[in-house]
Description:
Largest sheet: 8 strands, parallel
CATH architecture of the largest domain: Alpha-Beta Barrel
Number of domains: 3
CATH topology of the largest domain: TIM Barrel
Strand content: 25-35%
Low-confidence stretches: 1-27
Protein name: alpha-L-fucosidase
Number of strands: 30
GO biological process, one term: glycoside catabolic process
Organism: Arachidicoccus ginsenosidivorans
Strand order of the largest sheet: 7-6-5-4-1-10-9-8
CATH class of the largest domain: Alpha Beta
Shape: globular
Keywords: Glycosidase, Hydrolase, Signal
Oligomer: single chain
Bound molecules: ligand FHN
Radius of gyration: 25 Å
CATH superfamily of the largest domain: Glycosidases
GO cellular component, one term: lysosome
Mean pLDDT: 94
Helix content: 10-25%
Structural class: alpha/beta
Amino acid sequence: MKKYCFLLIFLCLAGYYGQSQDMADMWDSTTTKNPNKHIQWFKDAKFGLFIHWGLYSKLGGTWNGKHYYGSGEWIMNQAKIPVRKYEQVAKTFNPTHFNADQWARLAKEAGVKYMVITAKHHEGFSMFDSKVTDYDIVDATPYKKDPMKSLAAAARKRGIQFGFYYSQFQDWYEPNGGRNTWDYTESKKDYQRYYREKAIPQIKELLSNYGPLGIMWFDTPGGMTKDQTRAFVNGLRKLQPQCLFSSRVGQGMGDYKDFGDSEVPPVPMEGAWESIYTHNDTWGYIERDFNFKSPKEIIQLLATVASRGGNLMLNIGPDGEGNIPYYSAKFLKETGDWLSVNGKSIYGTTAGFIPKQPWGVTTEKPGKLYLQIFTRPNNDLLLVPGCLPQVNKVYALDGGQPLGFTKKGTDLLVDLSKLKRTVSASTVIVVECKGALPAYQSQAPVTVSAAYDQNLIEAAYAKVSANAQIKSLTYSHYYGDWKHTTCVTDLTDTTDQATFTVRFADKGDYRLVLEYSCGALSAGQEGQLLIGGKTFWYRTLKTGEFNRKAPLMFIQHPVAIYTVDKPGVYKITIKPATDGTPSKPSKELFKLKSIIAVPI
Ligand code: FHN
């Protein structure tokens, strides 16, 4: 039953994921029905470490004195550096500070269960000892050693699955590799020759010389038909049948789905999948990028991804000397400290059956529901909606403090007053039950309560009508640091509506704030918010245009104060106030990210 609920959600989101995003979209949903028999370790792992390390790490985002912003590993492409100049960087690449043991120890302390490192990124340089080319770390640099050998061994020694990232199509060094248009003419390239002469032999080396690999992490597929991709996959699989292939091998193949960079599905998703984020805004090292996610952000992201059934692989970018950025090491260790106490609520769990609540998210194991509390309720009474089977015991995971609870209808109310007020990114409460937990409650109303400073009613929970859609919008702040925000779009005519089913748990007055993005053409239009038979009017405010290559700005626009006389389930509808006319067609009202309900 549970399985079908997930499938239903998956199908509902088909439009959401149907648009062209990163290559990650090409994952075959049949994999969920016919999974690779070696997938279980991956599904249980939940937390992985991604490492981008190459010649670009030496450049750190600067070429010829000019600073480049965005993703450091793209500097060759951004600055259109000719191959013959770029290859000179290898002569200065001497990462004497690299210490495989230190890196693996950090990974262990961070609590990751797998590690994936760039063997060859789009720049074309091999960070391993390759007999296929001399453009590799052993032959072309003063370092002359193969760091991948020692890293694979050090990771394995600590029980961490080891894997390689390999850019199988984009190779800006090779005349026949994909996407170097500044040195070579794309139309003259023979991609098959590139696959035959470099990519396939090198991937074979990786699969043959580094022991049992957990993952081959492909990226940005291209230049192969579906049949060619199948032959490519089948040929490589023979070398290490247990090694999982990521969905970015392309053409709907792969053993698990990778979402776009920095993307999490807004609700649980069936099958094995992974969200990939980088610690700051770049994948490869940039010396000017200090936007490191705090331990709190990492932990809450990890718990959120786990609550939807997936893994988080978090990237770090060591520099050209082999140093891991100070804040990456520090914040990863702090994440590991939290995991060492609360790991049971993450590793080996599946998605929680309760949708996101104002206090946080849930994960589960048979007979156990883990409440990940990001925000403690002001009244210390935690409302857990959703028809739990017989509850035997409720306690804090850290320290085991038993907590009082009562059942009220289909709700469980947990008394947190005995719980010490400690600072934690997520305080985990365990609810032990007798019997199976229910299936994911996709139809449950969004909870709003006066016990929180604010309550988010997110676009993903809308029911849309007519032409309105729920879409994941992809954009970037710097070059390549993709962001994704789920919004209701195409609210153009009065029949295009977004309706949210909301349960107000407490009576009182609530300020309703619309969080939206609005371009110049949409600004100044009138919209309505309908609730409990009342209509509230507003005029949209300009924030800026939606453009994949620029930040998508959102405004928080208070539009109503509504008095909830009686706790219960209410509908909130957002729609344009008027239809267009043939002479003055209406425009999309805005791109709605959320309604924020603020108790006043
Ligand atoms: O273009 C690459 C990018 O440099 C980085 O490696 C990311 C990581 O997922 N993958 C590609 C873009 O999706």
